[in-house]
Write a structure and sequence with these properties.
Elements: H1 2-11, E1 21-24, H2 31-61, H3 68-96, E2 101-103, H4 104-137, H5 142-145, H6 148-173, E3 183-184, H7 191-195, H8 203-236, H9 241-269, H10 278-302, H11 304-315, H12 317-322
Parallel strand pairs: 1-3
Antiparallel strand pairs: 1-2
């Protein structure tokens, strides 16, 4: 991917008005604030890495969690881990160094993985909603509808669609002509931030962003809403109060993650490009940093099975079984 973007950058050097690098200036120019931001983002990154790695290890080591729901959760944690690693390490280097430069190819590579992994998070969340729908509303068909082969096929489809979507938007960005100013007052290469530096007409790419966003993001979101409407109806028909609580508790963590993910995402992207401002940069940090950090806590604290698996993992029992 990096080599391809480097070749594209060399071929289109004339079209890019000599752009070879950008300057990621970050949120603040104050040295004192930069030190605070460095330790804040470093702490959040370490918490995110440790939390998501523990989720993956707990699911992999505990046979009680070898089910479709936790299979997708492990992949969600892997995606979040890759997601923060794509942006935060470079951000930390910039906060500590005098040079804030990122190469043109490096910026587009970061953009590609940012778009692809946000899309993948979205599609995996939709797949997890489908899993909960089948488990609660069609329990007799669950074994066949969510067989290992179908789960792997669904995951491959999520990865392929995400990679193609990220590649499409990144290739469109290679056709954008940038102005002389290459200063990005932000912490990583984000689509809307780059488009604000464009000198060429960005109407086409903005239309593509809106139309594809409706398909890639709003369609799965609508599917999740419809799934949970049916799930709530099915739960309300359960006569036992304890059974109702158990059925709802299996969905509560997923609902919390979906609300956090879409809440921050809609604040940023469901608006015209011209209105994008610093407050939207804060919202972008929310979905790019805070959401991946919070997901392990949400799933471990709200899920008794996951809570137990993490306890066994940290006590060493899971490793004893593996060895």
């Amino acid at each position: 991917m990096v080599l391809m973007l480097q070749r594209v950058g060399e071929m289109d050097e004339g079209n890019q008005t000599g752009v070879s690098e950008f300057q990621l200036l970050g949120i603040s120019d104050s040295p004192e604030q930069q030190r605070v931001l460095f330790w804040m983002f470093l702490s959040m990154y370490l918490v995110t890495v440790v939390g998501n790695v523990l989720i993956i290890l707990a699911i992999g080591s505990d046979s009680h969690l070898h089910s479709p729901m936790y299979f997708f959760l492990a992949n969600l944690s892997f995606t979040d881990l890759f997601f923060v690693t794509n942006t935060i390490p470079k951000m930390l280097v910039n906060l500590q160094s005098q040079s804030k430069a990122i190469s043109y190819a490096g910026c587009l590579t970061q953009l590609y993985f940012l778009v692809s992994l946000v899309t993948l998070d979205n599609l995996i969340l939709a797949t997890m909603a489908y899993d909960r729908y089948v488990a609660i509303c069609r329990p007799l068909h669950y074994v066949t509808a969510m067989s290992p082969g179908i789960c792997i096929l669904l995951l491959i489809l999520c990865w392929v669609l995400s990679a193609l979507y990220g590649l499409t938007l990144t290739l469109l960005m290679t056709r954008v002509t940038f102005c002389a100013s290459r200063k990005i007052h932000y912490i990583f290469c984000e689509m809307y931030v780059l488009l604000r530096l464009a000198c060429s007409n960005t109407q086409t790419i903005h239309i593509v962003l809106i139309t594809t966003g409706i398909f890639i993001f709003l369609s799965p979101f609508g599917f999740m809403i419809m799934s949970y409407i049916r799930i709530v109806r099915a739960i309300l028909r359960i006569p036992s109060a304890s059974s109702k609580y158990k059925a709802f508790s299996t969905c509560a963590s997923h609902l919390a993650v979906v609300s956090l993910f879409y809440g921050t995402l809609c604040m940023v992207y469901l608006q015209p490009l011209q209105t994008y401002s610093m407050k939207d940069s804060v919202a972008t940090v929310m979905y790019a940093v805070v959401t991946p950090m919070m997901n392990p806590f949400i799933y471990s604290l709200r899920n008794k099975d996951m809570h137990g698996a993490l306890g066994r993992l940290l006590s060493g029992k899971a490793f004893q079984r593996l060895t």
